[in-house]
Write a structure and sequence with these properties.
Elements (H helix, E strand, L loop, with lengths): L1 H21 L73 E2 L1 E6 L3 E3 L8 E8 L6 E9 L10 E4 L1 E4 L2 E7 L12 E10 L5 E5 L7 E3 L17
Parallel strand pairs: 3-11
Antiparallel strand pairs: 1-10, 2-4, 4-8, 5-6, 5-9, 7-8, 9-10, 9-11
């Protein structure tokens, strides 16, 4: 086996030697000579060519003109002082302890019988069944100064069923000759059979007025004696 391997290796070596002897060394290129390029490249800049196309004019096109802005002018109003209106202020309620209702026939009356009405009628409904008496107190109050007179106390008439009434005339009031066109203030008090107070109202103010009577009295006719 070793002999076969030896002879095979020897045969390959001899074949290679024979091939080398057949090649001409002159045909082989020289390895020491430098290889030079045949042409030297030149760098020439390339300038692009631009082609311009003219823009045709637009027919019928109008140039936009800005429209001026108009600022409206508003008139200036000067505030005016408005007249003050007097409002109807409701009359505050008055205390009614011991009474259901109190009514007057009118809100004004006159001093003398020559002017009517010359009296005002008070009607009161007592709350307590044991009410035996009701007193009516009245006084004057000046419209100009607010000065008041002394109270005049009167006993009302008992009508039955807890109802009491009184017809007031100016002659019974204290200070009637001093006050002119004045308010008449009034107050009612309820009493039991022992004259003990069981009810009292507040003072009613500026609801009733006593007016002056400006009527001229009618002169009495005179009799002319007959001459025969």
């Amino acid at each position: 086996m070793k002999q076969r391997t030896f002879f095979a290796t020897l045969a390959v070596f001899l074949l290679a030697c024979s091939i080398l002897t057949q090649v001409d060394p002159a045909a082989l290129p020289a390895t020491d000579a430098p290889i030079l390029p045949t042409d030297t490249p030149t760098s020439t800049p390339i300038t692009p060519t631009f082609t311009f196309t003219p823009t045709p004019p637009l027919l019928g096109f109008k140039t936009w003109t800005p429209t001026p802005t108009i600022t409206p002018i508003f008139p200036t109003f000067t505030p005016m002082d408005l007249p003050t209106l007097a409002l109807n202020t409701p009359t505050p309620p008055v205390q009614m302890n011991g009474f259901i209702s109190i009514n007057l026939s009118q809100s004004e009356f006159y001093k003398r019988p020559a002017c009517q009405p010359s009296s005002v009628k008070f009607t009161a409904q007592a709350l307590e069944a044991k009410t035996a008496f009701v007193t009516l107190s009245v006084r004057f109050k000046s419209r100009q100064t607010g000065t008041t007179s002394k109270w005049t106390t009167l006993t009302m008439d008992k009508l039955g069923g807890g109802t009491f009434a009184y017809e007031l005339i100016s002659d019974v009031m204290i200070g009637v000759d001093i006050f002119e066109n004045a308010w008449v203030q009034y107050q009612l008090v309820a009493l039991d059979s022992g004259s003990d107070e069981i009810g009292r109202t507040g003072i009613f103010s500026e609801r009733l007025t006593l007016l002056e009577c400006e009527a001229t009295p009618t002169p009495e006719p005179t009799q002319t004696p007959l001459v025969p």
